[in-house]
Amino acid sequence: MLIAFGSCAHSFEPMPILNQVVKHHPDLWIWLGDIMYGDSHDMTVLKKKYDLQKNKPEYQALLKATPVIGVYDDHDYGTNDGGKYYSKKDSSKLLLLDFLDAPADDVRRSRPGAYADYDYQVGDRTVKVILLDTRYFRDTLYADTTGRQRYLPNPDGDVLGEAQWQWLEQTLRNNQADFIIIGSSIQLIPDEQGYEKWANFPAARQRFFKLLTETKPAPVLLISGDRHIAEVSKIDLPGLGFPLYEFTSSGLTHTWGRPGDEPNRYRVGKLMISKNFGLIEVDFSRGKPVVRLQARSETDSLMQQNEIVY
Fold this sequence. Notes:
Distance between the termini: 16 Å
Shape: globular
Number of domains: 1
Strand order of the largest sheet: 3-2-1-12-13-14
Structural class: alpha/beta
């Protein structure tokens, strides 16, 4: 199975990078947030920008070529770095579901939050995709007034909200899939960068890791967006039974405006500062899953490849 994913796309800019995605004939495209930059409490503004994105010829070509699923991040949610106190979050969620052509009876239309899971058959094997909502229930970020970084840890703050935590636990405990991909719009493993990340909520991050080790699911790959970069991170959690990797792909229409670097003690390979999309190949031909991660540029050049044998 070949899965493509990406995030961070301005609605007023063309997305020729999607033409490169289509050439790979992926079985699935996953939006990991910032599908467009709405940043408004006016739903007519958000809808207009969703419509601009949806009507682009390159996006229409993607829709005709492969199924599309996804979740929002902050800018398409409606407010930069927003969380549970955004007053239009229910209306915003419905616009996301309309953009994704979710059916009228989709449970997310009547349930708080945009989280969801999907199962895909690969021969006699199954790949499960879990998409988390890191906005609707997320507690307040603490600003760093010293200016050294944008945010400080909120020690007791939460990311998912109790209903989503319970759903995630049941989804993992009841899982029959052979491989699981968990999508989070913000980074989960990296903890040194000063922007949005799960590490701003250390109790919630630790709860997530503990949930994985306690439920002992099939091998898991994390994917994330938000950062306008690409990188692969890896952490070894005692008792998990497999290395936990996170593949960040972000910046379909824009990236950092300057060269640079930032620390990430978990990084595997290099920090890639350019427009990019991610490809994930899940191969069961050897029995256990073999997963190949490719970060690819707007011209489809291979920026980095990692192979994980579980």
